[in-house]
Structures
1.
Amino acid sequence: MNSNVRVRFAPSPTGPLHIGGLRTALYNYLFARKHQGSFILRIEDTDQNRYVPGAEDYIKRSLQWCGLNPDEGPDQGGLAGPYRQSERASIYQEYVELLLEKGKAYYAFDTVEELEAMRQQEQGHAKYDSSTRQSMRNSLTIKQEEVEKLVAEGKPYVIRMLVPEARQIHFVDRIRGEVEFDSAELDDKVILKADGLPTYHLANVVDDHLMQITHVIRGEEWLSSTAHHVLLYEALEWQDSMPEFAHLPLILKPTGKGKLSKRDGQKFGFPVFPLAWQDADPNESFEGFDTFGFNPEALVNFLAFLGWNPGTEEEIFTLSQLTQAFSLDHIGKSGARFDYDKALWYNSQYLSKMDPSVFRDAIIPFLDKAGFDPNHSKLTSICQLMQDRIKTYAELPDACRFFFIDIEQYDEVTISKKWNNDTKLLLKSIRGSLSKSTDFNAEKIKSKVSELINQAGVKFGDILPLLRIALTGEGKGADVFSIMEILGAESTLDRLDKAESVFSGLKPV
């Protein structure tokens, strides 16, 4: 084990944290904990044009909800801070000047119109690189005196890195193995924008070096950018401290085709964000796994398996167990298909095994939202009955609404199939027997009702659905005798009386 391992999760606060980003955070967290290292949160907020108020707080709350607590970060502090890139501008400027002095970067004064004209020469596909840079307005094509004059006059400019010609750039990715890029494929990336803030490329390399990051675990969309980063490490003579890279496979749509996007949640009817996000624009507001009724531990377990597996058949892991089992060697190269049914399965496994008192506390907000009394005298019994019958907390209010309100609708299709003179007489007999009962216990009720059914010669499958419909309105659900016990004698008898009247008045379907 290596206590010097340092990994960072570096999200951009341009909106709510997608579950793809949350999975990246999870893998970084697991790797750090596995090696007794440090898990660092760094906020990459240099793109001020896309900065979204509240997004940073959302990121922090999402990590906290999932139990992925950073060792260092904007709130935790640490020796490598500050941990917001917007607060590190002077640091980046130092290294920009160093790159300019070493001839590894240059000023570019091109206007938007000039850049567009250059691109149009190649039907929009031209890059700002070794084949075009000599025809543009930059410090490679104009005299030093002119450069200094333009800068002094406040002429807008950016700083670009100088990508060398005819180079093969090699690095080893912990997931994909040996990776190679030809420098001819690369453009001269902007490393310092006109507003004086760095782009992702420079800021990441500088911050990872100064924060002594040992492993960069991020999405595969950044794989092609790594060639530029390797060149920056070389230009700054930091090759010996360059971190190891691991680029994670994409999370794919349920169809398996294309990257899962935030709009897919709305399209397919499932969450793609850990927590609900409320925006001033209703089109940019989204439900989260929290409001869908997920246990965060179940979500973490599900996400861990989107691209990784332990090499065994076991699927249920606590966060601690995931930490022990996790390895970069078991992350696949191919995209992982998002399977919401599997997420529901994970959640149902966790809900069924929760401590009853914890489960009860967790469902109270969902009862409140449904307008049901969270102080119901039998809530503990209701929870015990329903806990292993639901897949999400949000399902519970609807699944047990009959405990809180009168029956509004009855399953008329089942009634029409089961309601006849024999079942009608038997329902009367059951109602009469229950009215004399002094102990309204589920087991004793079941024994008494079973005896009456056997005596009447009616099939259990013909009368039990009718009993359940009489009590709940639905033909399927939880144990009917437990429902009777929770409802109590008075409510049970009242509902049986009402049901007889309703059933008899229904026309055959």
2.
Amino acid sequence: MATPTLEKAEAGFADSPYITVTFRIRRFNPEISDEATWQDFQVEIDPKERVLDGLHKIKWELDGSLTFRRSCAHGICGSDAMRINGKNRLACKTLIKDLNPEKPITVEAIKGLTVLKDLVVDMDPFFQAYRDVMPFLVTKGNEPTRERLQSAEDRERFDDTTKCILCAACTSSCPVFWNDGQYFGPAAIVNAHRFIFDSRDEAGEQRLEILNDKDGVWRCRTTFNCTDACPRGIEVTKAIQEVKRALITRRF
């Protein structure tokens, strides 16, 4: 761990937890150049703080043109997914001290989606795939007079896939998605899974047929990148395999 700066020591802050960390950020501004470049920023920061805190310091104190998405800053909204030291993570959940801060911390936009500026990507294709799998409860008949009841066991069947926050970390970590943006991607399949196995829903067959398409679940190569990248701990690969199994077994 780096030592506090001389200025801080002379000011009587020799025990300060702050260290100097280099943030190496991949910058892209289409109004300036068609090529992305790397830019280093030196930031004084407590290693117990998060990468998002470091990005805030850069934007607020060093370079106001740095562009990135963030909202809740507590791992719920999913808006600050980015590649940090080569892995998809949420900047608001990634602590500086867990990244070996003695070396530069690299930050870049997630892969597979068009970069609009700096760390901001075009999420429209991602959300279109999400919409295409009908991520909502579908029922028939008259409007119910009371809540649609469900047993704890039935609810547990799809509990894991209800945790998705649509951060795109899983989809943008998928090699198949990098090479072909037509693939629905893990996040869309996870959200289809959530309703396919919901005992109250009546559109499971329709969703399975959508995912049986050439750009659906059969494109998955089971590399587990998506499961490793999920900040919510969802067993994404397992969910995809369960959808595949449902497609096979429904024919017998």
3.
Amino acid sequence: MKIAFIPIDNRPVCYNLAVDIAAIDKSIEFFIPPREYLGSLTKNADVEKIYEWFCTLPNVDKVIISLDTIAYGGLIPSRRSKDSEDTIKERVKKFRSIWTKKKTKVLAFSSIMRISNNNYNEEEKEYWKDYGTKIFEYSYNTHKCSLGEFGSPIQNLIPKSILNDYLMTRQRNFNINKMYLEWQKLGFFDELIFSKDDCAEYGFNVKEAKELEKEGGKVITGADEIPISLLSRAIEKDISVKPVFIENDSKNLISNYEDVTIEQSVLNQLSLAGVKVKENADITLIVNNFKNHQGEIVMKQPTEQFSGEIRLPDTPYMIADVRNANGADNNFVENILPQIKLNNFYGFSAWNTSANTLGTLICAAKIKFNAKEYNDKAFKKVQMTRFLDDWAYQANVRQTLDKPQDIKDKMKPYEDKISKVLDIEINNDYIYPWNRLFEVEVVDESC
């Protein structure tokens, strides 16, 4: 199968992870733009170069497109871009003309612009550092109270020029999403997903999601994992999964940054991946969920960690550790590592949000289970990266840092443990692709 893939941006979890997961099956011919074409924290994607790359592709069976990349230059630029609605429409229509000529199936996703409840403008417009929480409150209250044109009293605390700019940007992006929905009705997409992340119970993003759903749009809570979930869906092979929750009485609780229960998040990701839920399933999905609330390691928000013991099954299984956002549960990982046997192990993940963890975990497991030409080295590379990023770095080493620095020595004890579990030699370097602590790139020097 030949698959083309246009990521959200150049982060390791968006770019490298997609490449590494696809490599688990050598029969998949995977086409992806050069990484330097993609956007970063401070740079927009080079849309013209991606277009040229797209035009030169051979005929592929399916193309997976992050529409934010070709429309705005990436997920972050979608919130910052000053381009007009007409300019963006013409840009995307160029791509549509090519995939129409190539007669390929297109699986696409577009984000519903998030509303972060903070005064942190690293990924937003400049004014977010002063008015982010006020804009969030305005959005939340306007939707909740159904005040309509009268708005929320908090708007008086936001300069009119800033509020107008924000609302115009939202309306532009929403109009673009409505255009995509019309294209889907005309048959241009084989699958179209609208994503919402950093959700609250109310807000303009929630309101827009409901309007898109009324018109037949499919909305999923999540973001960064969705292109990889669509890769899973593109592999049209049967696989069944049985979810098992460590804290079964708490599966109705809602994860951080999401607006659905952890159980519903699991079911949504399985459905998007084209996976059936069965009692007597091919693979068991073990979910290390939270009891009272999800922890947040980065924000120093603790939760009750895993206690007791778990016995891993003798049948195929994979593990989603979502007890915390942004990092693994140390007690849980230390419990499972000695038990892992490679013959029935289909993956581990614990990065960022619950949806992020689930979507990418399921894809790797599905490709491994159905691989025509299974690549054990590639599967082990994915697992090495997840354990060393999600557990060693995020849950441990990162907590000792106040800025990016050389961490090879700090990572060595964790490398030794993972090398024994996966039966591989590890010779890694670690870099900070966006020059911040939030993401580290595990560079496998042995490749």
4.
Amino acid sequence: MIIVKNKRCSEEKIRKEFPDVLIVDVTSHAKDEMIRLSPFYPHGGIPVPFSPGWAAMSVESIWQGLKVFETAGVDTALFRNNTMKGLKRTVRKYGKPKGHRKGVGGSELLEYIQARKLIYVPTYKWMMEHKARTEIEKLRELAKTRTIVLLDYDTNPVVEDPSSPLSHASLIKAYIDGTYPVYDGTDEAQQQKPEEGKCEFNIGQRVRHFKFGEGTVKSIEGGRITVTFAEGDKLLALRVAKLESV
């Protein structure tokens, strides 16, 4: 069983309510590998919805980068932010938000809830399936025999509720429980593939493949990267979307 709690709740209070609980921090302040489930984590190579050829470092950089304000439009520079900091774009600096652009070059502005459905929710799912599969499977197995409390700074699980930010921990729970929300129009967003030149990979960079483990980039050509892996020093040409930064 999986439960979502506010990270500000004391561990003592949580354990009093659930004595045999396993507490897992999935925020950007996590101290273990579960930090990779934070929307701020810079995996790299995450396709930007409705934007062929564009990829970003994190889910949050996509959400913030496509936001449009009274005095500022789409900010593609955020797609390259790999620091987990400086991603928020504030009303104080840019004025009232007008919506989210449906794609980098799109003409349509999505209102808040629609943007959640077409941008945030499918992008976070893509990240779980392509960049954090190991962590998700670990939680899935643990939840079969233990009660797990996921810590998040937000606990709103309802996509259609604009009163507070959507909880990414609730999306994790929904994904593992088999109740992840799917909306019409998200297929296009999920099927986008980043093109070479838009991903943050360079020759000599350490990368990770979900199946082959860690390796080093040897060459980049088109939409494929040749990586050498420690085991047998073998070279494999792999699609950019299958790799992430280490």
